[in-house]
Model the fold of this input.
Amino acid sequence: MAQLRQEADPEEAGLDPRALDRLDRHFARYVDEGRLPGFLVSVARGGRVAHLTVHGHRDRAAGLPVEPDTLWRIYSMTKPVTAVAVLILVEEGLLSLDDPIDRHLPEFANPRVYEGGSGADVRTRPASGPILVRHLLTHTAGLTFAFYHSHPVDALYREAGLESSVPPGADLAETVAVYARLPLQFDPGTQWNYSVASNVLGRLIEVVSGRPLDAFFAERVLVPLGMTDTGFHLTPEQLPRLAELYGETGTGGIEPIPGLPLRGRPRFLSASGGLASTAHDYHRFMEFLRRGGELDGIRLLRPETLARMTRNQLPGDAVLRAFGAPAHRERANDGLGFGYNVSVVTDPARTLAPSAPGTYGWTGVATTAFWVAPAHDLTVQFMTQLRPKTLKVFPELRRLVHEAVTEREFRKRRESGRGAAGLVG
Done:
């Protein structure tokens, strides 16, 4: 069992200790006020962890503290791992980004698009073209989630039993077959709508590789990267380290709520949000991304492939707020494009929180987050377990980390060769 630890002095890494202290105190206050159960935050520059803080509890009732080796349900931070798995198959020539997905998943042949009506009176028309692999990676396929309540197709997902994106008792193949029977919200490639697309990618991985999704992830991504604490279920030895999941009560407090089941191999392997991981493991994944597809001498993707994954792939370099479906036209999506299962900062002047151009990353529904900022050679992760209703952590986290970045000392030491990257296993 590997554990993340601090490796560098903040000032030598170009980070302001006073600003980092403000960051810690800010989120510690949320814990002390009972709004967060506990958290872990790490900040690394040049591959070296220069700030690592744990505070609060992974299980409040049992009095168990957050530790560096705590396990977290990372939910949608699974999606970038899925993108890497898909791109491995692309590089091997088993898939193309421009493959119509019905070449491998025939149930998606002849997709239809919503035209009008609701319920039993929904009208559809043939889609203008097929769903391509790249549409799934960029959430431009026309798929959706049941929980949006913003479009008649969302309601059709609910009627099909997809409130939690999977029909009760179904496996991945059965679930994806249900998606395929439902109409698209729009023609593929014409809008951005965050959706169940990554689960379709998961099934695509299974069909093309001939391996179950969990086996492919382990063999081709997780084990090669040394992410040995990451998976779709936990062993009896790992379970005591798992953080409890909490939800807001509506009265300013939090309470335990059911989370992603992790005891025993699940029937449904979610490529959209099924992984649990540790700070050590996800730090290694961020380092793999930061280093352009390689870690500790093991290369999984070519640099040019990784560069495409982490660049804006929306048509015409569009931003999410303009290109998004109605559910996504909020201020928080301004200045952001989208690569392959990661958001990308395209215009820092328009973003809600300070960011450097080209910064990419993603979040999870339990208030986990990560990003890589190539302009600052910076990686950041934040781990907790809260499904929020009102608490907004990410803009505050971005602002507080941004305030801690100081360039002068970092650049001086990089130029003198003292900032060489390193990882502790």
Remarks:
- The radius of gyration is 21 Å.
- Residues 290 and 372 are 7 Å apart (CA to CA).
- Confidence is low (pLDDT under 50) at residues 418-425.
